[in-house]
Design brief:
It is a single chain. 36% of the residues lie in helices and 17% in strands. It has 234 residues and is of the alpha+beta class. The strands form three sheets. A three-stranded antiparallel sheet has the order 2-7-4, with no helix packed on it. A three-stranded antiparallel sheet has the order 3-6-5. Strand 5 and strand 6 form a beta hairpin. Helix 1 packs across helix 4, helix 2 packs across helix 4 and helix 4 packs antiparallel against helix 5. It is elongated, with a radius of gyration of 23 Å. The two termini are 36 Å apart.
């Protein structure tokens, strides 16, 4: 689903019911963008690139993976050799010990394949995580339709938290009644921030007791080589 930033902002405005003098449109927009960044880390988008081999074992990630976001992206799977869909070939995936995505040399990050050297006639199909972003004119994002209101709830939470901080800093009113009003608004917005964030967390499955979306993965009996993919203990 492609949704423009103004649609997110309109929903957040309806939730927080704050006027322009209390919190500007630019500030509200910034909180929506921040909410999208948080959502991206909770439920990142995925992208797949086909990378042609060069008979070597090292592949620079920044040039090989077109949508890679350094500090955010992680490789999920490497299919090698990449299946030809039109021929109904079965996908074959490398095991975690067959690749390493954190090898650095001269400030360049490489994908290193210790056990394979794909030929120029072969391709690797690499799937990795990417953040959702607002892009284009008008500014829009492609988040799942089912998560629209959850993202708006988080945006509203961030707005309310900022408003609570703003009113709590108003410590030099001209009248005592103003002080009471500011304190009341600060408490109100702080409470609403918690409520909105709880709604978001319950929806995306990051709250205790919430039902999170899941998927089947390989459960390896040895940690990934040489480091960085460790055992998971429960």
């Amino acid at each position: 689903m492609t949704t423009v930033l103004t649609v997110f902002q309109a929903q957040v405005d309806a939730l927080i019911d704050a006027n322009e003098t209390e919190f500007s449109a630019a500030n509200r927009q910034a909180m929506v963008v921040t909410a999208l960044e948080t959502y991206s880390r909770d439920h990142p988008d995925k992208h797949t690139d086909d990378v042609t081999g060069d008979a070597g074992r090292y592949y620079p990630i920044s040039t090989s993976l077109t949508s890679w976001s350094e500090g955010f992206s992680q490789i999920l799977t490497i299919e090698y050799p990449a299946a030809t869909v039109a021929s109904d070939e079965a996908p074959q995936y490398l095991e975690p010990e067959d690749w390493r995505s954190d090898y650095w040399a001269a400030d360049v990050r490489y994908l290193y394949l210790p056990n394979h050297a794909p030929a120029a006639t072969e391709k690797m199909r690499i799937t990795y995580t990417i953040p959702y972003t607002f892009a284009g004119t008008p500014s829009a994002t492609t988040t799942p339709a089912g998560d629209f209101y959850a993202i708006c709830n988080l945006g509203a939470a961030y707005c309310c938290r900022a408003l609570a901080a703003q009113f709590s800093r108003a410590t030099t009113p001209t009248l005592g009644m103003d002080s009471v009003n500011h304190e009341s608004k600060a408490r109100n917005f702080a409470a609403r921030a918690k409520e909105f964030e709880a709604l978001y967390r319950a929806h995306v499955g990051t709250e205790k007791g919430a039902t999170a979306a899941g998927e089947f993965v390989d459960w390896d009996t040895a940690p990934g080589w040489p480091a960085g993919r460790r055992y998971v203990f429960h």
